[in-house]
Each structure stands twice: as C-alpha cells, then as structure tokens.
Design brief:
Oligomer: single chain
Strand content: 35-45%
Strand order of the largest sheet: 1-2-3-10-9-8
Distance between the termini: 77 Å
Structural class: alpha+beta
Number of domains: 2
Radius of gyration: 25 Å
Number of strands: 10
Largest sheet: 6 strands, antiparallel
Order of helices and strands: HHEEEEEEEEEE
Helix content: 25-40%
C-alpha cells in the first residue's frame, strides 16, 4: 500500500508539472480570444493616441496624432501631441518640417532634428503650444525616440 501511495503521489506531481508547463501554450489562443473580446485598449499616454492625419513628404511621411490630455485628476503626464516621421532610412540627414497639429491649415510647430543624434528643437508657432528642446526622453510628454522604423516626437501643449 505504501508503494502504491508513493507511485500515485509522484505521478500526480509529474502530471501537475506537465500541465503547469504546457497549459499556457495550449490555452494561449483561448486566452487571446477572451482578452481580445474585452475591448481593452492601450491608454493614449502610452500609445500616443489615434492618428488624426498623414502628411506626405518626398520620400517619407509624417503621422500627426490627436492631442492627448489628462483623463484623470491624478495622471502625472502633461498634455502632448505626438508626431512620427517614417521610414527612418528615407529621412534626410537633417529634418526640418512645419507641422500643423490642429488641422487649421496653419503650422503650429517648426520641428528640426537629426535622426542619427535624436536631439530635437521644436519651436511653437502658436501660443497654445510650448517650445521644446529635447535630447532623448526628458519627460513623458516631451521626448524624441526611435520606435521601430519611425522617429517619434512628443510636443507639449497647454
């Protein structure tokens, strides 16, 4: 009887380990469908918001995103607008563009950067926006970074 108990105990432990190791791989599709059905979305302060318009330039394009403001009183990310230049290999050695953020046909920022250095100078042409100089990530709402095949610039707003 002792031998049978020992064999059953060890077999149960081995089966539990096999289920624990293989379970996530076998059930991944089910978990993915279940979480996808919940309609969860990444918060705009992390993703940059939704693309509001695309500006085509010779050889590259600028994606201008919607303004991201504070959605809760305790949120510590200041309001910003994100713009991205892609593809990086097609960008000139020094980029200087005027960007219309609000879609009124008048430029709101003059953005100048070098893709190799990741240092940006953004001059506000509209009083609702802030002038910015950034090398890398100075804050979550004022930064320049390379993300996949694009240079992402976040411009601070009022």
């Amino acid at each position: 009887m002792k031998r049978l108990t020992s064999i059953l105990g060890h077999s149960g432990a081995i089966a539990a380990l096999v289920v624990a190791v293989l379970g996530p791989f076998l059930l991944f599709g089910w978990f993915q469908k279940g979480i996808g059905a919940m309609g969860l979305k990444i918060h705009p302060s992390y993703s940059g918001g939704a693309v509001s318009r695309v500006v085509q330039r010779p050889g590259y394009r600028i994606l201008v995103y919607e303004r991201v403001g504070r959605t809760t009183p305790w949120q510590r990310v200041d309001p910003f607008v994100q713009a991205s230049w892609a593809p990086v290999p097609a960008l000139p050695a020094s980029v200087s563009d005027e960007v219309d953020v609000d879609g009124d046909g008048k430029p709101d920022f003059r953005v100048a950067f070098k893709p190799a250095e990741l240092s940006v100078d953004a001059v506000a042409l509209n009083p609702r926006y802030h002038t910015m100089h950034s090398s890398g990530v100075t804050s979550f709402s004022a930064l320049i970074a390379r993300v996949n095949d694009a240079i992402v610039v976040r411009l601070p707003v009022e």
